[in-house]
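Kindly draft a sequence, keeping tokens residue-aligned:
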Amino acid sequence: MFEKTVVCSLVNMIFATTEPESPEGNWCRQLDRFVKTHQLELAALSWGLWIENGDSKGTIGIDLQPQPHFVYCPKQAIENLNCKVENRLQEVLGIVDHHQPEVEVVMIAIGKDQIKLIHFEPQPAPPTCFEQVGKDVDSLLEVLEQRLSEQLQCA
């Protein structure tokens, strides 16, 4: 279920800036609420995927089109996009490069013509979150994708 990557989506994306009150920016606010509500599960998912793959497939991403689903964002795709947007993603690349999976969660959300960095340090740490949640990666993916779809439809 999680084997797909987002190379084409990420590389071909146009980096656009929008006003915070625009409809295009609404998904960012909805996603912020989702992340705040589901920090424990997202940290558990992040750690579970790290255990399975390390960083061999890239950074975890949330592709919101056509339905919210988790993907991998290969580092090369992020670097290529950074070149296309005149190095405006240098900070994102720095965070991705220095990601400490045992302490923090790093994900890249992909919306229509925009990306958003998700970066937080959960309490407890991701390994403990994974233990506390007590679900396997596939179950976490299924539950989080469903909840995210529901939240985005309601808003």
Confidence is low (pLDDT under 50) at residues 1-21. The CA atoms of residues 56 and 74 lie 8 Å apart.
